[in-house]
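Case study B.
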Amino acid sequence: MPEPAPVLIFILGDQLSPGIASLRDLSPADAVVLMAEVSEETVYVRHHPKKIALILSAMRHFAADLREQGWRVDYIELEDPANSGSFTGALAAAVERHRPSEIRIVQPGEWRVQQMIDGWEARFGLPVRILRDDRFLCSIPAFRRWASRRQALTMEYFYRDMRRQTGLLMDDGQPAGGRWNYDAENRKTPPRGLNYPAPARFPPDAITRAVLDLVARRFGDHFGALEPFALPVTRAQALAALDQFIAAALPDFGDYQDAMVEGQDQLYHSMLSPALNCGLLVAREVAEAAERAWREGRVPLNAAEGFIRQIIGWREYVRGVYWMHMPDYAEANALGADRPLPEFYWTGETDMRCLAAAVDVTRREGWSHHIQRLMVLGNFAMLAGVDPKAISDWFLVVYADAYEWVELPNVVGMSQYADGGLLGSKPYAAGGAYINRMSDHCGRCRFDVKAKTGPDACPFNALYWDFLARHEARFRDNPRMRTMYATWHRMKPAQQDAYRASAAAFLAGVKPAADGWARAPLSTGVD
Ligand code: SF4
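Model:
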């Protein structure tokens, strides 16, 4: 009797979860798992070397675990001479080798990959079963239904529905502690002398070492430091990092989640997003771990709630917005911003200490925390009128947790207001006073945060008012911005002119980045 044709399960580099839907309802005897390191994914933008190393190492470890469990894994390494360089090419070769009865895959995270998958049935003449990615708590159709019932997509209401639906932080149908949101108790300025927990770090094993050599050789000219490399690359390591965060950092996460402190990269942040977004952890278990810690009295409610809101609220919400609005969302530019990205986003060479520090941690770690991303790097780009595509490419390249489904809404929508307010009811614009309140950068900066205009004044101050003036027609009737415009109109014309002249003079001295940092030339891909 000939062997029955197997099911070919294609697992992508951000689907590295033992419970992934494509592995369910099949036994190792009935299937072949295909995993492929393809150059089109490693070079479609010039990713941070740590991000490439994380994904390749995590894929190789995941494949080894599957083999140990008895699965037959057809694994194509990046430098395999037969590697075609694309998902479709890898699949074509695997179909030839295994003659499967069907192809099975979990819905990809990115629209671009979905377009590819949509052509497979016709191309291969085989059934292609695309399974829901149920690692996300809200399905895409469910998000569409939620959105279709609302005029404004307010995240807070989505989050409350997710709380009700999951039962997380709920007591008898009511929010734990009587309130949905404890942000009012968060965002404190950290006093001097706090003890910050040591981040979880995982020394490379032999598999990771081989990947690091490969990445150094092929992608060493990309932005970012490959080593030291200490990210979790296995499920066991990711779970250990989660445990360490819950025990050591979560208790203070709420209080200080918006703070920036010189010499402290992680503060009380989890730094779990790289592991979460490639599948080593899943949203529900992360949120449940935080809830358990609160119920057992190990963390305060404001910390657990703030963290859980990021996971089951914001993360799910931006994914829903992405899938509802692609592909147009990638082209959004509501404010007509067209300035090239400043070169210092790549070099870190700027006298603005807050920006230099944010670029520096990004270069070293492939990560920075959300206030550095939103209120320093994103805020500057929006105030300066940087093309949203240019800043979005930068975010996609430099962060180890960046996949288009999460990066695009966060950057184009939340940080740049390029979607015209779909995600946020007002732009996240701030002058130097905000950064001074939330950080200790300004005291060591060559600019004077209290000075309003002139060559020594903090550039954020003039850029802020210049931004409001440029976009007055759009924002002056926004109820959340009336106070700012009232202040602008109380200023004497000479003061307004001074702000605008100061902003123009500063921007005239900002060197634009040369082409090629983010997307081209692709000198290190597979030939
Ligand atoms: Fe940043 Fe301005 Fe403060 Fe300097 S003075 S660190 S540029 S906010």
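Residues 384 and 507 are 7 Å apart (CA to CA). The remaining cases will be described in the next quarterly update.
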